[in-house]
Design goal:
globular, 13 helices, TIM Barrel, two-stranded parallel ribbon, alpha/beta, 324 residues
Length: 324
């Protein structure tokens, strides 16, 4: 299977790229999108509504099951015109979930203020979600707290208010690409845009293998995965190709509730159950297992499509020296 060092062996990589798990079960994945109605920078002449419409159109064209979009109400308070994003999402047959009012770190919040964040957000979601289950909660930054007492308290609060936790079991850091993409569109830098797009898909592909490796090391099977995405400009641009990638790797698309019906997510469906590691990475750490290596070298996002003056300024503030 896998080399002791954690690097991919050719045999292991070929097996993990197969269309089925070890026991022959089909691979399943649920897409979810965070930060509705607005994530990261906007390219010129682009609106939040256009980004949302592009995403739901791609989901519809691929005959995707309903895809949850996790809402931060403070973004609508700041820009009321972006409230249309929630309607676009919902009217396309996709449900909404709760991502707190203003996207705070639980580790940096008191339990009381975090509970208030959850409840305040309901006033934005419930008028749109007049039908369907909007009681799905995604922790901002996937941060479940800095100690077990706080984590347990919030999970019991969620359970008491009928929430299920929308846990994440696959990610490739899609958010990192959206801001440089907006800069490169503004500069019409086609070479940089090509680099961003190709590396975006490469990162997604590599992390399919990484997360499958973790699941199989831990549970000797492929769990149904829940993918974390964001409602960003490059995410919208790349979604058709991204969906094609996951299909080519043998995945069947399922809804979040279907994925979470698996026993792996039982403590997320019932948040008042005893605590367990909140991610595959956490479970690997608990068992003393090394995480799979990342072999892909990502672009230096902070240097892409920025002026030399801007780069010097950033380096000066960070104490770094300019190197030609």
């Amino acid at each position: 299977m896998l080399a002791a060092s954690g690097a991919y062996s050719p045999a292991a990589n070929a097996e993990l790229r197969s269309h089925h798990g070890k026991t022959g079960q089909s691979l399943k994945i649920a897409f979810t999108f965070d930060d509705l109605p607005a994530h990261s920078a906007l390219p010129p002449n682009t609106t939040r509504a256009e980004i949302a419409q592009k995403i739901v159109t791609a989901l519809r064209d691929e005959h995707m099951p309903p895809v949850y979009g996790m809402v931060n109400g403070a973004l609508i308070e700041k820009n009321p015109e972006d409230s249309v994003v929630l309607r676009i999402w919902h009217d396309a047959g996709n449900p909404l979930g709760n991502h707190t009012w203003s996207h705070p770190h639980l580790s940096q919040s008191s339990p009381e203020s975090f509970e208030s964040e959850i409840m305040s957000n309901e006033a934005v979601i419930s008028p749109v979600m007049t039908k369907g289950d909007w009681h799905w909660f995604r922790y901002p930054f996937l941060d479940e707290g800095d100690n077990s007492e706080k984590r347990s308290r919030i999970r019991k609060f969620l359970a008491a208010h009928g929430y299920k936790v929308a846990a994440v079991s696959m990610s490739f850091g899609d958010y990192m690409w959206n801001e440089p993409y907006a800069r490169c569109v503004a500069k019409d830098d086609q070479e940089a845009l090509a680099t961003l797009k190709s590396s975006y898909l490469a990162a997604a592909d590599e992390n399919i293998t990484r997360y499958r490796e973790m699941s199989r090391k831990l549970y000797c099977r492929d769990i149904p995965y829940v993918l974390l995405m964001h409602i960003g400009a490059l995410d919208a641009e790349m979604l058709p190709e991204l969906l094609c990638l996951y299909r080519s790797r043998g995945f069947t698309f399922v809804s979040l509730p279907e994925a979470d019906s698996d026993e792996y997510y039982s403590a997320d469906i019932h948040p008042d159950q005893p605590l367990r590691p909140h991610s595959l990475e956490g479970a690997m750490k608990e068992k003393g297992l090394a995480l799979p290596q990342r072999n892909l070298e990502l672009p230096k996002f902070e240097n892409i499509c920025v002026s030399r003056c801007y780069t010097i300024s950033v380096m000066a503030r960070s104490g770094r020296r300019w190197v030609n």
